[in-house]
Amino acid sequence: MSDWDSDKSPGWGDEPVEPEKDTKPLFGRKSPKLPPESGRDWKLIEKLVMSLQAEQRRSRRWGIFFKLLTFGYLIALLFMLKVPFGDTLSSVSGKHAALIEISGPIAADELASADNIVGSLRSAFEAPNSVAVILRINSPGGSPVQSGYVYDEIKRLREEYPEKKVYAVISDIGASGAYYIAAAADEIYANRASLVGSIGVVAGGFGFTGVMEKIGVDRRLYTAGENKAFLDPFSPEQEEEVMFWQGVLENTHQQFIEAVKQGRGDRLANDERLFSGLVWSGDQAVELGLVDGLGSASHVARQIIGQEELVDYSRRKSPLQDIVDQLGVAFGAGFASQLVESRLELR
User: Fold this and answer.
1) 99, 165, 177, 321: most buried by Cβ count inside 10 Å?
2) Residues 67, 155: one domain?
3) For residues 11 and 56, what is the distance between their CA atoms, to the nearest angstrom?
4) What is the pLDDT along the chain (347 residues), one digit of tens a residue?
5) Parallel/antiparallel/unpaired status of strands 279-281 and 293-294
6) How many whole angstroms separate alpha carbon 113 and alpha carbon 121?
7) Can you give the pTM of this predicted structure?
8) How far is CA 9 from CA 2, 17, 204, in A?
C-alpha cells in the first residue's frame, strides 16, 4: 500500500510546516531597513500630497472670494436698477436751470429717442425749482417722426409752463432732426464753429440688379397688391415709383420747413438756401437767423437765465444696458439692421 493511502497516518515528510511565530512585541520590533532610494521616494510623495492639499485649500478660498464678489456685484446692480430716475433729483432744493442732453442719432432705439427726451422734458418742467430748461444738442439728426414728437411736446410744455423758457444750445453739430427740435425753443445758441442747419430730408438705398445679372441670379418675388414691392432693391428702378417717393420726401420736407418757420418766425433771413439742406457754421447761422447768439450751456445758464447751478435731467442708460453695450452684444444687431434697413431721415 502506498504512503498516501487514506488509512495510513502520514510519515515524516507529510506533516505541514507552520511558520515560526514572532513573539516580540509589535512596537519594539525594528522595521526592516529600506534602501535610501525608497526613503527619498516617500518624502517626495509626502511633499506632493501636502502641496496638493495646500492648492485645494487655496482654490476653495479663491472660489469663496469670487462667489462673494459676484453676489455683492449683483446686489449692487439690482439696487441701481431699483432706484427710480426721480430719486436722483430729490435732493435738488435750490433754484436751478434744468439741463437735458440730446446726443447722437435721433431714433426710437437710440438714447436720443422721443420717449427718453420727452420724459426728461416733463421732469424738468414739473420740477418746482427749475426756472428754465436748456437743451444741449450734439446730434446729426435722425428720424423725422421722433424729432416731430419732441418738437410738439416742447411746444405743449411751453404753453403749460409759460414762465419757464426753453433754450437750445448746439455744441458740435445741430443738424437736420436735431435742428428740428431746436426750432421749438425760445432761443437757440451755438459755438462759432458749430455745424447748424441741414434742413432737408434724405432716404437712400442700393440697387443690386447689375450684380445679379453678372452672377446669374434671378429675382423671384410674389406679391398681392401692385405696389407691394415698391422700390425693391433687387428689381429694376421704375420711374413712377421714384416720382411717388420723391413726393413723400417733399411732403416731409415741407413739414420740416413749416416747423422751423413757426419756431423762428421773423428771425429767419430771406435766403432761399435756408431750406436746401446746407449746413453753416455758428457765425453764419447767426447771420441767417437760425441761431440767436453764441455761447455754451453754462454761459446761457449764468448770463441769460441768471442761474449758476445746472441740474441734469437727462435720461441715461441703465447700468445693465451699459454692461451689455460694453460687451459688444448690441453691435452685431445694430450693424446688421443698418445694412438691411433704409430709414427716412432728416438731413
Assistant:
1) 177
2) no
3) 65
4) 444 444 545 454 455 555 555 555 544 555 555 555 566 777 777 778 888 888 888 778 877 877 777 877 777 766 665 554 444 454 566 899 999 999 999 999 999 999 999 999 999 999 999 999 999 999 999 999 999 999 999 999 999 999 999 999 999 999 999 999 999 999 999 999 999 999 999 888 888 888 888 888 888 888 898 888 888 888 888 899 899 999 999 999 999 999 999 999 999 999 989 999 999 999 999 999 999 999 999 999 999 999 999 999 998 765 555 554 554 444 454 544 444 444 555 65
5) unpaired
6) 12
7) 0.69
8) 11, 16, 118
Q: What secondary structure, in 3-state letters, does 47-99 show? A: HHHHHHHHHHHHHHHHHHHHHHHHHHHHHHHHHHHHCCHHHHHCCCCCCEEEE
Q: Are 316 and 120 in contact (CB under 8 A)?
A: no
Instruction: Identify the domain containing residue 255 by its residue range.
Output: 96-204+235-346
Give the closest residue to 310 by CA, choosing from 320, 300, 323.
300
Task: Report whether 105 contacts 137 (CB < 8 A).
Answer: no
Q: Output the nine-digit C-alpha cell for 155.
A: 411746444
Looking at the structure, do residues 151 and 54 belong to the same domain, yes or no? no
Which stretches within 83-189 are classed as H helix? 114-126, 144-160, 177-182
Of 117, 93, 94, nearest to 106 by C-alpha is 117
Neighbour-count burial of 150, counting CB atoms closer than 10 A to its CB (0-12 exposed, 13-18 middle, 19+ buried): buried
Are 168 and 254 part of one and the same domain? yes
Query: In 3-state terms, what secondary structure has residue 107?
Result: coil
- Could you give the angle at which helices 144-160 and 114-126 cross, rounded to 10 degrees? 10
Pair 296, 310: CB distance under 8 Å: no
The verdict on 110 and 69 lying in the same domain is no
Q: Same structural domain for residues 78 and 100?
A: no
